[in-house]
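Lecture notes, continued. The same structure-token format from the folding unit now serves as the input rather than the output. Read the line below as a description of shape only.
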């Protein structure tokens, strides 16, 4: 069965056409023994595929680091000490929405022949630092 697990940030623009999105995720095609971890970037409708790395089964942590006008995507497998950087993409200081995704199909798939369910645990979600939090909006 295909497995797609993702974490994304969408930066809100003044208009929908000015929206930016950054994604980091794990993709395993059902018939394949290999899988990849990748990150990508979409700015005003233009797609940048970013970098990817082959990986075996993934049990670990995904991370975004937003500093100034850049967002970096990183990952770390369980048991590893060092973070691995995938990409650094341009960013704005606009408000951002964080989202999670899990699906059992890859784009352009015509049918799903999964014999078992797919499970992902999104745990220990943290925002380590934030500025200008407006209490009324929480």
């Amino acid at each position: 069965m295909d497995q797609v697990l993702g974490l994304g940030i969408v930066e809100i623009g003044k208009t929908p056409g000015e929206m930016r999105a950054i994604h980091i995720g794990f993709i395993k095609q059902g018939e394949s023994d290999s899988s990849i971890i990748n990150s990508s970037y979409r700015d005003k409708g233009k797609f940048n595929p970013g970098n990817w790395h082959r990986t075996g089964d993934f049990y670990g942590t995904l991370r975004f680091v937003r500093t100034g006008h850049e967002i970096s995507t990183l990952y770390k497998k369980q048991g590893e000490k060092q973070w691995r950087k995938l990409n650094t993409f341009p960013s704005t200081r606009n408000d951002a929405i964080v989202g999670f995704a899990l699906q059992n199909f890859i784009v352009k798939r015509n049918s799903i022949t999964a014999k078992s369910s797919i499970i992902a645990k999104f745990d220990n979600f943290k925002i380590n630092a934030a500025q200008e939090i407006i209490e009324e909006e929480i």
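Point for the exam: The longest strand covers residues 3-11.
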